[in-house]
Write a structure and sequence with these properties.
mainly alpha, single chain, two-stranded parallel ribbon
Amino acid sequence: MKLTIKNYKEATKGIDFKKLPEVAQEAHKEFDSFADFYNEDKDIKEMLDNHFKIVEPYLKDAPKKSTSSKKAPAKKVSTKPKAPKKKTTAGKTTRQPKQAQRKAIEVDLMPMEIKVIRRYLNFHNKSVTERQVSLLYKVIQKAATEKTIRKTSKYASEIKSISNDLIKTYKEMNATCKFEVPSSIYSKLKGIVDDYGVTPAVALIKRFINLYGNITKEKAQRLLTTITNSLKNGKVKQSEKEYDQIKKVQKHLNDYLESDKLLVTSVQLNGLKGIAGLGK
């Protein structure tokens, strides 16, 4: 199996990383810190790609899931006759589908500022390494240089506070430390991150792309059910620009469940990747 940023966590669940080289153990521990910026930083991309190559030969040694055919003990069937159900004369009420809750701010692609804030908050109350702290600081500096985070950005002052705290922490820490986000900014940053979410339609398209090449009937049915429910409850509305693509994905899944063939052309797949911001 070829490891990617998308399938890494699932694919490596059964690996005992203590048996791998120390460099692979360290990269595995810090995977979450790197993953968010895989497409934004060439150095991070190169490092993770090399890590994947080191880990891939060990995938075959991962223990397989138990396929035990033992049947659960049969339930005893009561021979006691059931009392007949009472008929009610009350009129039936049609249950309306629940309206899905939406995030206050929904975007197709998560802004760099939000990625940085989210990663910074994920350090809170955790043991972090010098490498993790310096990496996040480096990402901020690179984003400022490339103007993906500007002085005029909506959250420029928050990013500056994060940057200053990372510098202070790095100077004061040893190899590792327990990271504490200052209480003066934690609640504000948490509120900012909680307001943001990826547009539901784009999230579903990403799930389909990640499924491609690793699809099963069970996975296809789960995603199809989610898409169908999202269309019913208004989580994906007809007025949204990705609506037509979601309907096409729905058809692809239906066709696959009927024929066991996922007929998606490279042009269609690339189009979906473009919408989901995975075209890099």
